[in-house]
Write a structure and sequence with these properties.
mainly alpha
Length: 421
């Protein structure tokens, strides 16, 4: 974001813009813990009076987002402890006949689980299975962990709570669970995303078409419990049909998950991703300062004044610039920033903001797959590989991630164009 040309930039706007730029630059630099950066930037904005404490509580922070993130984060821990994900993975591996299908189904399981669980958790949960299967096939673990990571990260817009950006979009626009599948009389973001995910997963069969070795797989015995799965279904139905705050419903789901999970409550609280939770709070305040001081409206008006009047061109720009930037930028602050930008651009053009919002979210959700550092799941998978003596070569990584990412994004982009514009 740049300061748009115009008269009378106020001191408050200049301060907010400077803090915004420094904050995002340090987040990109990745030499400091990003939660400290966002919280420090938020604190400075409050101390300087750019954002008041009341505005932080009532305007900047989206409490529903935090409630959903906490509640379903706790549920995902309980779900992983239930052994159901491992059981599903073991059963599929037991039935596959050749190596490329083993990779395909492992990736498909990762995608399915990541639509309801944080993708770093899914990677850590399924990595031991990938290691065992690769050893059975006497094959490179690289061929398993990279598809596992990028498949867990490709489903970020399939459900309302698959990833923080999807939660943020839903809460900022008032969307509920089933709105992701049928919205304003049209096929929704979740359906469109699922088609892209299927296309990307099928591309793995082409990428690994030469891996046709066969082997038998014997799963280990597991003690499976189904309480967390039942709670998940109950939570989804409550979000869909009970007309109260999604944050309150999700908080209740999290409390029940704490009660039914055999893991100790202290351990569950330690397992929860508090860093991301606090990071989101700080970023809410930083981005809100841009809106509160009027910079966001000025930027949107400047963008419209450039004379780009075609919604098709703007959609294409938002989709693919989001893919590119998300290969390097954390998708949470990017989403929080771009939701009001997309909305105001659409308002100035007199069109619905939802094609732009959906396109931006698809791009930023999938784009993190392009590089080994573009998403936490990728970082974890590459870390496991490096510990086992593998060297992460960017080109070898992108031979898998690039076609996978482009196919998923292109399918989503095309469907958005056909259905929503």
């Amino acid at each position: 974001m740049v300061l748009p040309p115009g008269d009378g930039v106020s001191p408050e706007q200049l301060i907010a813009f400077t803090i915004f730029v420094v904050c995002f630059a340090l987040i990109l630099y990745r030499k400091f813990k990003i939660l400290y950066i966002s919280l420090a930037a938020a604190a400075i904005l409050v101390i300087l009076g750019i954002v008041t404490p009341l505005q932080v509580v009532l305007q900047a922070i989206n409490w529903d987002v935090l409630g959903i993130y906490f509640g379903f984060g706790m549920l995902s821990i309980a779900f992983g402890e239930s052994q159901v994900p491992k059981y599903i993975a073991f059963e599929i591996m037991r039935r596959v006949k050749t190596e490329r299908w083993a990779i395909f189904w492992l990736a498909a399981v990762a995608a399915a689980l990541s639509s309801v669980m944080p993708n770093p958790v899914v990677v850590m949960m399924l990595a031991p299975i990938a290691i065992e299967v690769s050893q059975r096939f006497e094959s490179s673990l690289f061929n398993y962990l990279v598809p596992l990571a990028i498949s867990s990260n490709v489903v970020t817009t399939v459900t309302m709570f698959a990833d923080p950006p999807a939660i943020i979009l839903a809460m900022e626009t008032g969307m509920r669970f089933f709105d992701f599948y049928w919205f304003q009389g049209r096929i929704g973001l979740g359906d469109i995303s699922m088609v892209g995910v299927v296309a990307a997963l099928l591309s793995l069969l082409l990428i690994y078409r030469k891996l046709d070795k066969g082997v038998a797989f014997t799963p280990e015995p597991l003690e499976v419990s189904y309480g967390a799965g039942i709670l998940f279904l109950a939570g989804v139905l409550a979000l869909a049909f009970i007309p109260i705050s999604p944050g309150v419903i999700s908080l209740a789901v999290g409390i029940v998950a704490l009660a039914i999970c055999p893991m100790s409550k202290v351990t569950m609280f330690k397992e929860f991703d508090w860093d991301s939770f606090l990071f989101i709070i700080g970023i809410f305040v930083v981005v809100a300062s841009i809106e509160i001081t009027g910079l966001l409206a000025a930027f949107s008006a400047w963008f419209v004044s450039l004379g780009i009047t075609s919604p098709t061109l703007i959609l294409a720009f938002l989709v693919w610039i989001s893919v590119l930037l998300s290969a390097f930028i954390d998708n949470v602050p990017y989403t929080i920033l771009m939701i009001p930008v997309c909305t105001q651009i659409a308002g100035a053009m007199g069109v619905s903001p939802f094609p732009f919002l959906f396109g931006m979210l698809i791009g930023t959700g999938i784009g993190g797959n392009l590089t080994p550092v573009g998403a936490t799941a990728n970082v974890i998978a590459c870390g496991i590989l490096e510990k086992r003596g593998y060297k992460i070569d960017l080109w070898e990584y992108m031979k898998i991630s690039l076609p996978f990412t482009v196919i998923a994004t292109a399918v989503g982009h095309l469907l958005l164009q056909l259905i929503w514009l």
